[in-house]
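A reminder from the course coordinator: this example appears on the midterm review sheet, so study it carefully.

Given structure:
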């Protein structure tokens, strides 16, 4: 399970060092793809494969489903961390997420998210009230 918040820096070659505590789980390969809210999603390869299979089973007669599947598949990039635990983020991924040198990697239960540090701070500020007043009808039995 991926939990916590980390602040690695993006180097001049577009490489990002993954948090050390997650490297073993991601050593066998991972997939980087567009995430929601202009973040990047980093999945262990087997988790991504399962999500992709579920997405492929959705009816493509729905325009939103087609768009989601297309974005997910077209932006997927298979990576294997190097000996230092770094992955290289493509220029398209860096542009999509607005990444600068200062990044934030957050655990999102079964995957990681990569955010530009300022975008993450803005997102947290914008959604704090939603988090604080979360209701059972939205989150089911979680609360």
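Designed residues:
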């Amino acid at each position: 399970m991926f939990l916590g918040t980390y602040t690695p820096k993006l180097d001049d070659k577009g490489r990002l060092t993954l948090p050390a505590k997650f490297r073993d789980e991601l050593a066998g390969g991972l997939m980087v793809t567009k995430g929601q809210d202009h973040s990047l999603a980093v999945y262990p390869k087997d988790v991504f494969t399962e999500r992709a299979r579920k997405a492929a089973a959705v009816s493509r007669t729905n325009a939103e489903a087609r768009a989601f599947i297309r974005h997910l598949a077209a932006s997927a990039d298979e990576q294997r961390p190097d000996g230092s635990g770094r992955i290289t983020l493509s220029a398209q991924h860096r542009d999509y997420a607005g990444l600068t040198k200062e990044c934030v990697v957050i655990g999102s239960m079964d995957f990681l998210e990569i955010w530009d540090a300022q975008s993450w701070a803005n997102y947290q500020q914008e959604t704090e009230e939603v988090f604080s007043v979360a209701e059972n009808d939205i989150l089911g039995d979680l609360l």
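The first strand starts at residue 5 and ends at 6. DSSP finds six helices and eight strands in the chain.
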